[in-house]
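Quick log. Single chain, no ligands specified.
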Amino acid sequence: MTIITPTRAADDLLAGHGVDTVEHTPAWAQLKGAATSLQALQAADGSIDDTAAAEPLVDDVIASLDALSPLFPHDAAYLAASVADFRRWRAEGFGTPDFLDSLVTFQPQEHRIDGIRHVVVFPMYTQNGSSARHVEAVLVEAIWPEFIARLETEYTNKLFVSLRLIDFTSGYDTNSAVLFPETVAMREVPSFTWGAIFQDREAARYRRVTRAASQITKLELPDAAARLLEDQDLAERTFVMWDLIHDRTHMRGDLPFDPFMIKQRMPFFLYSLEELRCDLTAFRESVSLQARLSRRQAQGPELDDAERAMLEHAELVQYAVIFDRIFRFAITGSRVRNYDGLGGQLLFAWLHQRRVLHWTDTSLAFDWDEVPAAVVALADAIDELYWRSIDRPKTAHWLAAYDLVRSVVTPHPASVWARGLPDDVLAGLPKGYTDAVLDDEFPLSMFFEALEKKMRPVIASTEGIRGSD
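-> predicted structure:
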């Protein structure tokens, strides 16, 4: 049982600390403790029946935000709006929370400055974490090195925010590595202007999983890839570059319409191809950037510091995409419509069947000189599928997508899709197509079955991981 002390004065709550040590202040401790206690009172939709218990907790939230606000002048409007939303929620009897007003004032994409911090408090669910819209408090800081700021002028993505987790409540003591506005409890859906990814968690998870998997598979890592596993800061910057390009790709290219089909129900392998398309675009662009900057370096003029960083990280992104997809995505999560898992299986099988990836004598090896062309060829195949589907009906696109996947990854022997959908399904509504897909339409190969058993404790250990772990 959490005991909340009476609200203290603002000076006491800060106790002489500055923004760089907010996580050690009584103000942050009070905010985190009050949010945690509110979670225990909330129903799944965020509402609270025990209003008498909730009222002093909201008082503590408000006092904490008021105390912290001077340390975050760039978020002054948001923090004031958050206080107003908490007061209104209390005044209206703690029904289903509505934090639209504070959400629309929180604009972290306007402050993409390396090291700048934010205190974020919303009733929300956390993707790959908690499905309940409970009050979560998160202390974060931006990761935005100079070379990324320069790169963003070429790969423009004004909505992309790259963050590092400093401290958080229980919704983020999970596998969640994103902060998305659509997860917040609100009365209506506004036009979203930002989306944030916690690159420190992505990087730390990658380093732990890839280190273990490379040892299990006896993979001899190239020097650059090995360096990535030893340096958290380097890995974080690499993931920022990867996600910057990945995120912008969702609405770029020759697309059937909205490839991710937001709020539309479709077979999970379509999501597999879309996420993989974006990752492989990041890979392709990194190959191109590496080649271009390498020529510059050889021919002159001399690269500046930002360009040298781009060149270094362009190579590292390629290793990150391959190993994260193969070693983590393919074996993480359940086997129920696991679209990221299927994407990892697809990439592995594609490289293996083109004989640039080898599993021989229980050892894994790559022909690294041949890998970029093979990966780009898979990206080309998905791009061709998308381009042709502009002229296809939706369900015909689904069938073509399935054919692409099953040409590489073997379907379940009981698959109705693999045998051929019956005429009544083919002539019916799209729902019939989706209903016919097995939960595990493309089971793990024998390689991945064995790897998953060995890697299970390592994967589990990454829950709640942060860059300092």
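Residues 232-461 form one domain.
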